[in-house]
Amino acid sequence: MRQLGTSTNYAYEQPYTQRGKPLPYTPQRRRSRAFWWIIALIGLAIIVLAVVLPVYFTIGRHSSSNSSSGTGTGSNGSGAGGGSGGGSAQPAPAFNGPISGGQGSILTFSDGSTQVYGNPFGGMWYFDPGEPFADYAQAQSWTPPLNESWRYGVDLIRGVNLGGWLVPEPFIVPSLFEQYQSGSCAPPYNAQDEWTLTNCMNQNGNATQLMEEHYQTFITEADFAAIASAGLNWVRIPVPFWMISTYSNEPFVPHVSWTYFLLAIQWARKYGLRINMDLHTLPGSQNGWNHSGKLGPINFLFGVMGIANAQRALSYIRTLTEFVAQPQYAGVVQMFSIANEPWMPVIGQHQLQNFYLEAHNMIRNITGLGQGPFINIHDGFSGMQLWAGWLTGSDRIALDTHPYFAFNAPASIAPPSSFVQAPCSGWGPELNASMVQFGFSMAGEWSVAPNDCGLWVNGVGLGNRVEGTYPGSTAVGNCTTSDAWEEWDADYKAGLMGIALSSMDALQNWFFWTWKIGNSTAGRVEAPFWSYSLGLANGWIPPDPRQAVGYCAGTAGVPMNEPFDGVLSAWQTGGQGAGTIAVDQLASYGQWPIESMNSVSTSPYLAPSDVVRLPQYTPTGAILTLPGPTFTTPSSTQTADAGDGWVDEQDQGGYWTPIGGCGYPDQWVAVGVAIPTGGCGALERRAGGEEVGGEGRGARPTEAPLGR
């Protein structure tokens, strides 16, 4: 959930064969539903599945021949502490039930509980213990089953975010944060983001245990079933980089959230939902907001540690790509949002575009052209027009924007009905134009919120614009009506329903922010505009999102100009021409690492002569791989092939890691600090004959993947 227009900165495709080795899992021909029901009834009492999700991290499994230990310099915060996780999750309860069904069938959840499947849209769930990676489920009759290709530009993404789950945010899970606002966690040490939350948890208990309790309870399999039953077909799941590793000075709980992302893949597969995996946090913070992990300055592509943090981010993007591009997962995780909401006004347009191109080339060298997830990039809050024509000939890059009314200044207390036409006249034309001028474009976040009322919507203790308690704002009224959702009358709800329908029609491909808002310690939802499930249950979110089709031109009376005709160019969907980026664009955006930094009036300027002296990491570290789930049956010692976490065996370069002996500054607080000396910067290392550049590939940007 983002503050558009404001700044709090301080300062699918089908499974495919892996290159160089045979496909480890090939789905069998799909049988008829009757066949599966017969098998299910025969085997009802004997099928038992133990699902064990071991949380371990294989370090050095694919390490380069010149790998270091990956440890840094200790107390300066650059050590790779936490890189090798330990422990294991408990096995899920035994499975015993049918393997497929539709409306009215009995669901057996992974925790052993049961429920009648209430999907009125022809959706079919599917989970067969003998084929745990089979992609036969279908969310609704109009949505392609997982084993059929998604037609970008034709099939509509109607999705929700699972915000606040694997990346907790104060306004989404307030009760998690409310208990850490006094005593030793009184301001300014109170829980405001995940950094301070885990610090406070460790002062008062065990952060690992407490965070796992949150992961276990906030989102469950029942939510995935409900999402499909609500007519939705995608989920965008924010994930943190620390589910892979942390550095020694970072308090985040490492690894544990990966267990629950694996469960998310399993549950999404069961109900036919596709996943947009959203890397919501980046080392050093890409926007300075609480949901980046740490509220404060931006240290990604900016400041003294800006390059090193970006190198580290590329390593995490690499590990995630290697995992989700495996055929066992490619049919479910069909999109990868590589950087959530980088704040371009600080980072800079050229710098962000250089990073995006480097990430694109690295990802497509792993997956091969036309394979692997769609790459999703955020517009940096610059507007979509700025990206028109960028990287023509790339391989499946989607452009993401996050439009909101809530953070407009000045704020408004006008009734929701006054906002109904705005998405049609504003957001719709911009998205349509971007589909033509850039390629596949979408809204990764939006809500029905007409203002920023609600507990901690702007952050802990930051107030709101309506009442003038947000810094720099002027009061225009109060939040009494906005917050009292239990008392909203039919007209108020109808206005919110109008915003929902006009937004869905205008945006076309979208993810609502967010599926669920948890109760505060007062026992009620205190940010009601932001909860899809609450609106669905109480009448301001449509029970069938297809109701939105044609709403702008019809009910809202705002026909959208130049509607997209549903035909994307072949290269934009991984076909002919993908991977043939124009030479001039490669020349303009192909510098990596970046050679200049943005100039921001509130921060010391780093000239190009300074940028080449900035500390960097070296690509000699042991590679971190992610484990898959283990599916076994009591009657057999055989397990399904879950992959080894690394789809491209040719990708053997080292991980970015700190250079031994370099005195790195704190990677989260490095704007305006002195540039360290000691041979850690590109200029000094080149002078010493060392190669510095693309991960494991020497002093050059990653080469673009070969064209067709």
UniProtKB/TrEMBL annotation:
Gene Ontology terms: biological process: cell wall organization; glucan catabolic process
Species of origin: Dacryopinax primogenitus (strain DJM 731)
Stretches the record annotates as Disordered: 1-25, 63-95, 685-708
Catalyzed reactions per annotation: Successive hydrolysis of beta-D-glucose units from the non-reducing ends of (1->3)-beta-D-glucans, releasing alpha-glucose
Bias-annotated ranges (Polar residues): 1-17
Protein name: glucan 1,3-beta-glucosidase
Keywords assigned: Cell wall biogenesis/degradation, Glycoprotein, Glycosidase, Hydrolase, Membrane, Transmembrane, Transmembrane helix
EC numbers, comma separated: 3.2.1.58
InterPro entries according to UniProt: GH, Glycosyl_hydrolase_5
